[in-house]
Model the fold of this input.
Amino acid sequence: MLSSDGGSLVTKASEGHAGTVSRDVCPLCGSTARTRFRAIERGGSTYQLEQCSNCGFVYTSTARFDTADHGDLSKLYWRFRSRHHQIRRLIHLHLKPGSQIVEIGCGRGELGYIMKDDPYGYTGYEPASGLSRFGQQHGVNVVHDFFRPETATPADAVVIDNVLEHVLDPQQLLADAVKTLNGGGLAIVIVPNRDDLRQMVPSWRDARHWIPPDHINYFSMSDVKRMFAHCGLQATPFGFRALTLRDYRYFARAALETARISLLGHNVYAVKPEPQGAMQAR
Ligand SMILES: [Zn+2]
Done:
């Protein structure tokens, strides 16, 4: 149902109106064919979710121009999560000292902070002013800007942690990131899972999952794999690779991921192949 004042984003879908942009094609495959997936009432507005008839991707029919959460610096605090430690372990497993880590949409820079004594370079890009200032004030190398592939320096790992669900063109952002990766480098992506088991709990679902206009893209595992394949990469769930024996609490999840069953968020990575002929050239 639309809000009674006619002020929902659904009724203001025309381009440029009220700070919103209309999304008329599937952001993953470009198809215009779609069916209504569901309507979400949130914050006094109604948002329409569409499902692509060609590839099955679920996305909102409108989005805000500025999806960055600018946040009040004085109210910010660190939010270290197990995934930050998993990403760090993956990097330690795969990359030599001196490797360059780039994080796109790094928020406060938790990953950079926990890696500050590690033998790697870290650069985070964060367009939200409060978040980027917070990281900078704690000594993390955060650039207050969008990631721009044309000016980015080559990276040995690109990390996109809970970002692709917010952006207008997730496929393009991943492709841009992969372009800046050196051969043998890691592309690490974490996105919420459209089929997350925790959706069975209504309070979790309403607070964390179907939350337009903050989240505008809703990924299944096959969507994630197709995005990686489009960049010439094979997406692999973290599984046990990012765990040590101290992480026994995550073993059940890792076992399921190894069996290609993703009950929680999608935590995946891929190794970029060395360019043809690179091995002989060395
Ligand atoms: Zn599609």
User: Anything to note?
Assistant: Residues 82-94 form the longest helix (13 residues). The pocket of zinc ion is lined by residues 26, 28-29, 31, 52, 54-55, 57 (CB under 6 Å).
